[in-house]
Amino acid sequence: MQMLFSGMFIPTLKENPQEAEIISHRLMLRAGMIRKLAAGIYSYLPLGFKVLKKVENIIRSQMNSAGAQELLLPTLHPRHLWEETGRWNEYGKEMLKVLDRHKREFGLGPTHEEIITDLARREIKSYRQLPLILYQFQTKFRDEIRPRFGIMRCREFLMKDAYSFDKDAEGLAKNYDKMYETYNNIFTQCGLEFKLVEADPGLIGGSVSHEYMVLADTGEEELLTCQKCDYAIKAKAEHNLTSCPKCKGKFASIRGIEVGHIFQLGTKYSDLLKANFLDENGKQTPFVMGCYGIGVSRIVAAAIEQSHDDDGIIWQMPIAPFEVLILPISIADDKIMKVSGELYKKLKKEGIDVVLDDRDEQAGVKFKDTDLIGIPIRITVGTKTIKENNVEIKLRKDKNSFKEKISETPCKVKELLKNMK
RNA sequence: CGGGGCGUGGCGCAGUUUGGCUAGCGCGCCUGCUUUGGGAGCAGGAAGUCCCCGGUUCGAAUCCGGGCGCCCCGACCA
Questions:
Q1: What is the ipTM of this complex?
Q2: Which of A33, A88, A184, A239 could tie A82 with a disulfide, CB 3.0–4.6 Å?
Q3: Distance in angstroms: CA A300, C1' B20
Q4: At A291, which helix (H) or strand (E)?
Q5: In chain A, ranges of CATH 3.40.50.800 domains
Q6: Nucleotide lying nearest to A148, CA to C1' measure
């Protein structure tokens, strides 16, 4: 597929829209990644969607490596299933509800314990089919009390939710650990700086639960982190700790954005929904379950909160919408366009996610947009450097650029990419 | 839901206090020419239910009443 900037739908904005206050919201609007339809309801434009997909793919490959299997569950949930667990009322106003033509009630799925457990009770009959981890990427609906911060807290958002089924607590502990590790890998691979904290299971239920917090000043959650080890705890959790219980180090107060939450559910849902299998002794036994969520769309916002400057977004390579942007200073100059076009083809051939800014705009406009959108590697092809058979390479995160021989550029870019992944 | 703020071409705003003539500015958009290394210059042009409904008035973006929408602070969450 040709990635020519001129043909792409990336409506960038020069000014800050007044509707947006926090940085990620402002920058996503300005970079042409998202547009608002209503409060807490957003469209993802091609650039935003591309980033979302990159995050999704990182999660998918890690989940698959952990042996989890992807499926897709329905969005419309019949009322009776949620009544079986008592959550039709318990979840209350947060669940959006709809009627069909026969006036039957459905909820728009805010989470899928009921659905997956119903599937398990119908299909998993024997301990021989366990353990099992199933997951999906799906749009979730939650009628939040107060949607805010753009994509950060939405009424409609993309979530990865996984559910594990085991024959006993030991199996659950194993799967939980596996997911715990997998989540660490996922957030690390996304290039995020994060902390793990113990959490309150809340409405989802269960006993053990951990949250993954991306560190950012605008985070909604206040955390206490140990300055010596990596221990962290929610500030509002009920405790009287003045120093780290692990190493007695001092606490520092920081803020975090919750991007992932894992739970040991135990038999809460399998009991309520009578989801049983036959164990080795031929005895009906409830599944021992865990559930594991990641706010995919929220990761995108959190990544921006964590990495930006006055000029715009600074993407970490693995989730950048493009890895490389080639910026010809003038499209009227045949030599510049020839070099740019050839470079583009070569990088493309190497499987590099490259875009050519072939727009008939002033150089300044292109520079500003590249910075705003936050492409990690920029290759500028200009009259001055081209005479010496050079191009200029600049990393978004660095202040200064450097020159590189045109012929060496593909190699150099490959090397840079290797170091930045 | 309680508290605060906002609503005027696509975006950012002025005008509203003290009602008045054709609703204005910057950016963006279209056409042409000139420019071309950090958001260009000149000329011409398109684009508006001034959030909606009702009221007051000779006359309403502006005053009054009601409603809706959006943002921020609190409870909620991935």
A1: 0.94
A2: A88
A3: 52
A4: strand A288-295
A5: 322-420
A6: B71
- The 10s digit of each residue's pLDDT in A288-303 is 999 999 999 999 999 9
3-class secondary-structure state, position A162: strand
Asked whether the predicted pLDDT for residue A238 surpasses 70, the reply is: no
* Angstrom distance (rounded) from CA A79 to CA A269: 16
Of residues A241, A260, A261, the one with CA closest to residue A250 = A241
Output b/e per residue, A332-341; b: 16+ Cβ within 10 A: ebeebbebbb
Q: Which nucleotides of B are covered by protein (CB under 7 A)?
A: 1-2, 6, 11-13, 26-28, 35-40, 69-78
Selection from A307, A190, A315, A317 nearest residue A260 by Cα: A190
A18 CA to B30 C1' in angstroms comes to 27
**Predicted confidence (pLDDT) at residue A76 exceeds the cutoff of 90:** yes
Class of domain A7-309: alpha beta
pLDDT tens figures, A132-174: 999 999 999 999 999 999 999 999 999 999 999 999 999 999 9
Q: Which nucleotide is nearest to A209 (CA to C1')?
A: B78
CATH number corresponding to A322-420: 3.40.50.800
- What would the pLDDT profile of A203-217 be if each residue is shown by its tens digit? 777 778 999 999 998
d(CA A17, C1' B60) / Å: 29
Which residue's entry shows tokens 């490259």?
A: A354
In 3D space, the residue among A365, A211, A226 whose CA is nearest the CA of residue A292 turns out to be A211
Distance between the alpha carbon (CA) of A38 and the C1' atom of B65, Å: 28
Residue A340: strand, helix, or coil = helix
